[in-house]
Amino acid sequence: MRFYLLSDNVDTLVGMRLVGIEGDVLHTKDELLKALDFVMQDESIAICLLTTKVVLIAPDVISELKLRNVSPLFVEIPDRHGNSNIGDAIDAYVSKAIGVKL
User: Fold this and answer.
1) Is the pLDDT at 36 greater than 60, yes or no?
2) Which of 26, 37, 83, 91 sits CB 3.0–4.6 Å from 31 for a disulfide?
3) Organism's domain of life (predicted)?
4) Are 44 and 17 in contact (CB under 8 A)?
């Protein structure tokens, strides 16, 4: 079982590689969909880390994967600028999952 990173910038990928996490840098929805297909086909990947900007490329697709997929686990991490609010993303995810606005 291993981690895999889908990032919007090389800096995050290089930092993760220092701790042994492989990944891809993507900028378009087509690249993201191909990478997600790869991640879901590879049974050795247990956790897929996604930077906030990657999630914003196709938020509906990522949200659906978080809700429906058992494996791998998709986890959003802040990008290198740290200017996103992960708390809002978590609130939206939980609200969609339970069907009640928090």
Assistant:
1) yes
2) 26
3) Bacteria
4) no
